[in-house]
Amino acid sequence: MKLRTSLTRTLSALAVTASCAIAGNALAADAAPVGDAKAAQSKISMCIGCHGIEGYKSSFPEVYSVPMIAGQNAEYIVAALQEYANGGRSFPSMEAIAKSLTPQDMADLAAYYSSLK
Question: Which superfamily does CATH assign the domain made up of 36-115 to?
């Protein structure tokens, strides 16, 4: 009887361990990509026209002050880009740009701009 109980506990422990390992791998696969600031240098041309000019104001659809994103928190930049891409934020040019970006592009741009002062 003790052997059966011990074997049952051992198998249960192994099952729990295996399910934790599987769940951990699934969560790791869903984790946000790590940004590469150097990789972003070939992607910033679509951003720098508005976000790189101090005091710049856009005239479409109305005069709009463009925020400076240099030094901004990387997680905030990624979240903002995701919101533009999924319609949570609305500004025509930002929506078009964000929809064209992959999650890795967003992470790279965020790493680049958060590294600037």
Answer: Cytochrome c-like domain (1.10.760.10)
